[in-house]
Amino acid sequence: MTRTDRSFRPGGAPEASHGPGGAPPGHTPRHDVPGRVAPPATSHVRAGIRGGLGEILLDRPEALNALTPAMVAAITEVLTRWAKDDTVDTVVVRSTSPRAFCAGGDVRLMREEVRADRLDGTMAFFAAEYALNELIASYPKPYVALLDGVAMGGGLGLSVHGSHRVVTEHSALAMPETAIGFFPDVGASHFLPRLAPGWGRYLGLTGARVAAGGALRSGLATHHVPREHLDDLVDALARDGIGALDAAHTPPAPPDRADEDAETALLAVFTGTPLAELESALSLLPGEGPAAALAALRAASPASLVTTDRLLRLGAGASLRDCLARELATARNAIVAPDFDEGVRCALVERGTRPRWTDAGIRHAAARTGGL
Predict the structure, then answer these.
(1) Is 113 among the residues known to form the active site?
(2) How far apart are the C-alpha atoms of 103 and 159, rounded to whole Å?
(3) Is residue 134 among the annotated active site residues?
(4) Which of 76, 220, 339, 346 could form a disulfide with 301 if both were Cys (CB 3.0 to 4.6 A apart)?
(5) Could you say which DSSP state residue 349 is in?
């Protein structure tokens, strides 16, 4: 079959290409190339084929590409189509905004739906998102996510399950759900325990953000490419295939010896310390890293910490499908619990207010929910 440049709306007919002047301020990717990418659709997802490359663009910059049901449906439709399309050799997923790859699911919308007693719709969104995570994990072609800017929660679900994850000097990756009374989902109970020792538990419990170096050392990312070279990388992927990625990889500077030693000590605490003893263990370590981790644990929902720690233990020996099924069942209980409503209210609705969690601490939450 002859390769052509095709632009389309997900689920629709081919469309005219996006012309100059339609990109948001600060826009980095070159999306004014004729025949490259379709105009914005109501799903906030655009996609097109160029050479052997299928390119998916997340285009909801005003919300940092927070995922909606329409976005999940659109991405699923495109990936399903391309899996069987012989003209597509490689898939790349990226953002139209330099601020964020994807900040996660739209939890404010979820809270509103739950408060309106529309739980079934919210659970349908979770089920669809988790099915997309599993589709990415089993995708039959190279799947490249360009994690430029913020990538959190559902943004990692769109990327970490894929074969290649590219970070830049502007990347910030995190799973911050315990701070809003939820837990790291989108298959995090599967991929976090499989990171380098200590990293998964540290990131999952504290919600800490990691830059490019930490993402590579932990295993969240596979490659580093400076932001200014991302467009060149996409061009090379379309022209030369997945081999272009290794050629573009430029490792960031390693941490100095003192920072490396501090990181090793911090991760050692998260590797073997029981949840109920983490705060006291962290308080014995010097430096900003342990202090920040300690503050994050103390600010998080105790019930979320207990739930997260349990899911990570169970996930370490389970398949992704089993992890996602367990997360789906857990999510149904979590979103109707008072801590989720309270956490989202304080983080996103009445920003800056301090949440009042159900439990006084980790031991209280463990006793109420059935143990650490």
Answers:
(1) no
(2) 12
(3) no
(4) 339
(5) I
